[in-house]
Amino acid sequence: MAVGNLLLSLLTFSGLVQSSPLSPRQNNAWEKLPPTPKLPSPISTTKLDINNVKLWYQEYNKPAGGDPIVFIHGGLGYSAYFGDIIASVMKNHYVIAVDRRGHGRSTYNADDVFTFEMFAQDTYDLLKAIGVTKAMWVGWSDGAATTLAGLLDPTITASITKAFVFAGFQSVADSNATYVDTAIYPEFISRCKSEYAELQPAGNFSEFGGKVATLEGTLPTWTDEDLARIDGAKVTISGADHDEAVNLAVPEHLNKVIWGSKLVMMTGVSHFAPMQDPVQFSRRIEEFIAG
Ligand SMILES: *[C@@H]1O[C@H](CO)[C@@H](O)[C@H](O)[C@H]1NC(C)=O
Ligand SMILES: *[C@@H]1O[C@H](CO)[C@@H](O)[C@H](O)[C@H]1NC(C)=O
């Protein structure tokens, strides 16, 4: 999330990073980046025209009814990173997967300046366009910041019945400065680059990645007073006990300033918890839906 380093990585990684021999330290689940999960089929080929971009989305188990659970992935990745969780939660619930503007299969405009408010507006407008007026939002990292932006917007928050904010942050200072030194970091960046090339053969990952780097290097800038405006009764703040990307004290702080919110910590996992321990993560989501 450190902008300079992310930009540098984007410019210098021309291909796959050679993986170094596994050191004993990487035997811990929180130090591994499991393969990117697959979304359950079918994979929609439809994109919706929303706010001058084409947004990809997929509904699962709509007949289950009720407010859908919308999964909002992290920066540079796409909806498939939530694939294991979606596969589990969709068994009993109406679920919607979305690729945010620019990410995965969704497009962006060359002159876009990404903001979390823009992403929240896109998500809200996409849901409205498909007839969804109430939804539960589950956000991870940049998706968690998108969820917070939605909760802070008077119109959008009225449509969010509940929110699960995993590995979220309120400012650039919440980023862990040593994230770029971890083994996972270059592996994640180079993986996103090759996935992007597959999903958007005509895309320019340097340009797209530069926009994400600028976003993460400058936003959000929410104060504690800003966050105190959120109706915490419908919010679950979640974090990972080994998060290497967001400072470890952040979940507790968000929980404290978003009055009335719940705090649910995941154990034995890092920023990539939905891939490292999908059973634990899915259980927490089921509790959130039921709670
Ligand atoms: C891709 O984007 C980068 C950064 O914006 C730019 O320098 C480069 O020329 C672009 N490449 C192509 C093939 O358009
Ligand atoms: C940053 O992450 C490392 C693990 O990669 C951790 O040891 C350290 O405590 C974290 N720093 C903060 C401020 O949370």
Automatic annotation (TrEMBL):
Key word Hydrolase present: yes
TM helices/strands, residue ranges: none
Signal peptide range in chain numbering: 1-19
Pfam families recorded: Abhydrolase_6
Segments forming domain AB hydrolase-1: 69-282
SUPFAM superfamilies: alpha/beta-Hydrolases (SSF53474)
Keywords (A to Z) from UniProt: Hydrolase, Signal
Molecular function via GO: hydrolase activity
UniProt keyword Membrane present: no
Matching PANTHER family: AB HYDROLASE-1 DOMAIN-CONTAINING PROTEIN (PTHR43433:SF5), HYDROLASE, ALPHA/BETA FOLD FAMILY PROTEIN (PTHR43433)
Protein name, entry field: Alpha/beta-hydrolase
Source organism per UniProt: Bimuria novae-zelandiae CBS 107.79
Lineage of producing organism: Eukaryota, Fungi, Dikarya, Ascomycota, Pezizomycotina
